[in-house]
Amino acid sequence: MKAIVSLTSPYARKIRVILREKKLACDEIVDLPHEPTAKVGEFNPLGKVPTLVTDDGEVFFDSPVIAEYLETLAVEPALLPVDRLAAVRVRQIEALADGVLDAAVIVLLEGRRALEQQSEAVKNRQWGKVEKGLAALQKLCEGKTWLFGDTLSLADIAVAVMVGWLDARFADYGIAKHYPQLAAWAAPLLARPSFQATVPAV
Predict the structure, then answer these.
(1) Strand order of the sheet with strand 2-5?
(2) Closest Cα to residue 49, out of 71, 72, 32?
(3) What CA–CA distance (Å, rounded) separates 143 from 13?
(4) Are the C-beta atoms of residues 152 and 146 closer than 8 Å to each other?
(5) Fewest CB atoms within 10 Å of the CB: 29, 147, 173, 180?
(6) CA separation, residue 121 to residues 75, 101, 132 (Å)
(7) Mean pLDDT within 109-115
(8) What is the pTM of this model?
(9) Other C-beta atoms lying within 10 Å of the C-beta of residue 54
């Protein structure tokens, strides 16, 4: 297999963490999807990372689909429950974490526009989504080691990746200051070898 990734993408990091947790052999090809020289478009018509190419040449994207595909390989640890409704509940948490990231990415990109082109209304609306999502996740993690069940799941990986990316990109905001329980919950996950090996380039 080969995974086409960006070292700054939290969505790619989710997959890179999963690959390491499952100890799956996979070549990681670093690509910059926004550059004219990007190669990911040769595999993914949307030109987005992460994109996974199997040994048979089948292509999967984006990160929730890739995560689902990796589960079909039946390699431990299983990161989704066998029960379909339970799996949906795990995916719901993943979707919440990814939704927070989606909103935060818009804020980040808006802030990179020329000052006269930036929209405070856009930034405020999107950051409102970030804060509501973080508040929901902090409530969800109260008193828990794992967000769903009694072992590591895709939900835990997605939320910890989200926390790590926000801390890297919005360091002045400080997750630990505003959502201390969420930050404390994520800390042991971020210390795992799979996370330490995939710390995002900033």
Answers:
(1) 27-30, 2-5, 51-53, 59-60
(2) 32
(3) 26
(4) yes
(5) 180
(6) 45, 18, 17
(7) 95
(8) 0.97
(9) 13
Among candidate residues 72, 93, 119, the one where a domain is terminated: 72
Tokens of 54: 């199997």
Q: Give the CA distances from residue 122 to residues 70, 119, 131, 166, in Å, rounded to whole numbers and listed in that order.
A: 36, 5, 14, 18
**How much of the chain exceeds pLDDT 90, in percent?**
96
Tell me: do 60 and 88 sit in the same domain.
no
- Look up residue 116 and give its two tokens: 């006269």
Flag whether 79 is in a domain. no
Model confidence at 202, pLDDT cuts 50, 70, 90, reads low
Place of tokens 């595999």: 43
Q: Domain span at residue 119?
A: 84-192
Domain with residue 21: its CATH number is: 3.40.30.10
